[in-house]
Amino acid sequence: MDWDDLRIFLGVARGGSLAEAAKGLRLDPATLSRRIARLEVGAGTALFLKSPRGYALTGAGHRLLPHAEGMEARARAGVAALSGDDRLRGRIRIGAPDGIANHVLPAVLCAMRAAHPELGLDLVALPRVFDLGRREADLAITVSAPRAGRLRVRRLCDYRLSLAAHRDYLAASSPISTRADLKDHAIVGYIPDMIFDADLDYLGEVGAGPPGLASNSAAVQLGLIRAGGGVGVVHDFMLATAPDLRRVLPDDLHLTRAFHLSRHTDAGGPLIDRAAELLADGVRAEVARLETLSHPAQEQALRES
To answer: Going by CATH, does the domain composed of 3-83 fall within 1.10.10.10?
Structure first.
């Protein structure tokens, strides 16, 4: 396969249809159809499943995709090296749980775009594990380190969590002096059968009972706690933006977890490599900044309450 064939392949894979790919490639759909058919004959296998809804990659197409993207990235890096321009160009999809996606990644990704205006960034914020083998994302942030699949995994940073509740809820409820007191309180947490990562099963660790109010989303849980729904576990990096919350049993309960960054072993090249470094550095710095802010904010709120 030559680069022009792979350029056609990438255009159709990203566009999802001949009509969409034709816009970027500046070729008519009939020409693209012939080129794809010729490419599949040369490869000896079907690369796309064709249907009235468009073109979807087959298993062979998914296997070819990272190699084609690698050639594209290397070609762009060569042009950049000749011109002395080290700005990143291309598009990267990042998958992340909704907690970090809502409270940490906006600042990180905006900074990356400011430094590299031609870098497109897609943030998929879903409370589940991403399938990197099927290219649901180029980079994925997880809590537990994935162990299955052909993945490259690196530890990003630790982060802290606290038990917290709204100040009005605590003022109207019985005191919480020990973990045993939690049995008399409303609990907010994850829907038990929708916990997608064992490291997110906090309530047993803190000694709380089953949640009366539950969600599969960390951001929704924060909203429920802020609305006075009860006591729940909150990321410390969220507390900086929630001055109405109070830590519960702060001297007794200290939860720590870690974020990990994963990518498929075939997802390489200068673009992904550099983007992964920028993302890792940005996440570490932003988590540290927000956690530092959360403690003084809470202490000031306590003094004023």
So the answer is: yes
